[in-house]
Write a structure and sequence with these properties.
Layout: E1 2-4, H1 7-16, E2 21-26, H2 32-44, E3 47-52, H3 72-81, E4 86-88, H4 92-95, H5 114-117, H6 121-136, E5 140-144, H7 148-160, E6 166-170, H8 190-195, H9 198-211, H10 217-229, E7 234-242, E8 257-265, E9 268-276
Parallel strand pairs: 1-4, 2-3, 2-5, 3-4, 5-6
Antiparallel strand pairs: 7-8, 8-9
This protein binds adenosine monophosphate.
C-alpha cells in the first residue's frame, strides 16, 4: 500500500494505476461503515484508493473540528488489511494552499435539513469532493447512504459539472442495536450511547407505518417525533420525509422517499435515515 501526502504524488500514482480506479473519500477515524465502502470498491476495481482528510471547510465555526477523532496509524493499518492500494492523506496546506479562493456551491439540494442546520457544510463537502475527483480522476467513488443528503449533493454536482465519475452508494452499517456507525459515536457516554438508539427506533416506526400503507408524510414525521419525545436525552434538530434526490419535503409518499432525522444527544449530534420505496444497487 502506497501512502502519499502531496497532490503531485497522488496524481503521479493515479496516472500509473491500473484501471478502473475506485476512490473512497473519508475523514479518517475509520470504522466498519468506512471499511464496507473499501470492500465494495475492492470487489469492483483494479485499484482502490482512499483519502483521509478532515476537511475544515465542511465544519461550522462552533462545530467539533478540533475535537474530531484522528488516528492515522490505525486508519492505515485498517486500510492495508482491506487490500487498499493507495492512500492520500494530505496536510491542510496541500488541499487549501495559501491564496485558495474557489469553492463549489451546491444549490437547492443543499438548502434543507443538514444544509439548514450546518450553514456552509455542503459547500465544504462539494468543494473537497470536486477537488478529490479532479486530483485522483477516479472511475468510481464510494459513499455511504448514512449521509443521505450528502449522497444527493454529490450525485447532483457530479452530473451538473460533468465530472463523469460513477457514484456508488453503499448501505448504512449499524451496531447490533441499530445505531448507525459514526466516528462521532465515541463522544457518547454510556447513558447517551443507550439513548442514541432512539434514532433507529424512530426510523423503524416510520418504516413500519409506511409498510402498513401510510403515505401521508406529515403523519410519518409525527410518528418519528413521538418516538423521539419519549427519550429525555434527545433534542431533535429535524425529522423529515423528503425526496431522496432533491431533498424537498413531501406531502405524500408516492415514489421513493427518505425518512431522515438529526438529533442531539448531550453534546453529540447524530444523523440517520432510511430509504422508503427504493433499494440501493
Ligand atoms: P466520513 O469519514 O464521516 O466523512 O465518512 C466517509 C464515508 O463513509 C461517507 O461516504 C460516509 O457516508 C460513509 N459512512 C460513514 N458511516 C457509515 C456507515 N455507518 N455505513 C456506511 N457508510 C458510512
Amino acid at each position: 500500500m502506497q501512502v502519499v501526502e502531496t497532490v503531485a504524488q497522488v496524481v503521479a500514482a493515479c496516472r500509473e494505476a491500473r484501471r478502473p480506479l475506485g476512490l473512497v473519500p473519508t475523514m479518517g477515524a475509520l470504522h466498519e461503515g468506512h471499511l464496507s465502502l473499501v470492500r465494495r470498491a475492492r470487489l469492483e476495481n483494479a485499484t482502490v484508493a482512499a483519502s483521509v482528510f478532515v476537511n475544515p471547510a465542511q465544519f461550522g465555526p462552533r462545530e467539533d473540528l478540533a475535537a474530531y477523532p484522528r488516528d492515522l496509524q490505525r486508519d492505515l493499518d485498517l486500510l492495508r488489511a482491506e487490500g487498499t492500494d493507495l492512500v492520500f492523506a494530505p496536510p491542510l496546506e496541500e488541499v487549501y494552499p495559501p491564496g485558495f479562493d474557489t469553492y463549489v456551491e451546491p444549490g437547492e439540494v443543499a438548502i434543507n435539513l443538514e444544509g439548514a442546520h450546518r450553514p456552509g457544510h455542503f459547500r465544504g463537502v462539494a468543494t473537497v469532493v470536486t477537488k478529490l475527483f479532479a486530483i485522483l480522476r477516479p472511475d468510481r467513488a464510494y459513499f455511504g447512504q448514512k449521509d443521505g443528503q450528502q449522497v444527493a449533493v454529490v450525485r447532483r454536482l457530479n452530473a451538473d459539472l460533468d465530472l463523469g465519475v460513477e457514484v456508488v452508494v453503499c448501505p448504512t452499517v449499524r451496531e447490533s442495536d441499530g445505531l448507525a456507525m459514526s466516528s462521532r459515536n465515541v463522544y457518547l457516554n454510556p447513558e447517551e450511547r443507550r439513548a442514541a438508539t432512539v434514532l433507529y427506533r424512530a426510523l423503524c416506526r416510520a418504516r413500519d407505518l409506511y409498510q402498513q400503507g401510510e403515505r401521508d408524510a406529515a403523519r410519518l414525521r409525527r410518528a418519528m417525533e413521538e418516538v423521539l419525545r419519549q427519550e429525555p436525552l434527545a433534542r431533535t434538530d429535524y425529522v423529515s420525509i423528503a425526496d431522496p434526490d432533491t431533498i424537498q419535503e413531501l406531502e405524500r409518499v408516492e415514489g421513493p422517499a427518505m425518512a431522515s432525522l438529526a438529533v442531539r444527544i448531550g453534546r453529540t449530534r447524530l444523523i440517520d435515515n432510511f430509504l422508503l420505496g427504493r433499494d440501493l444497487s
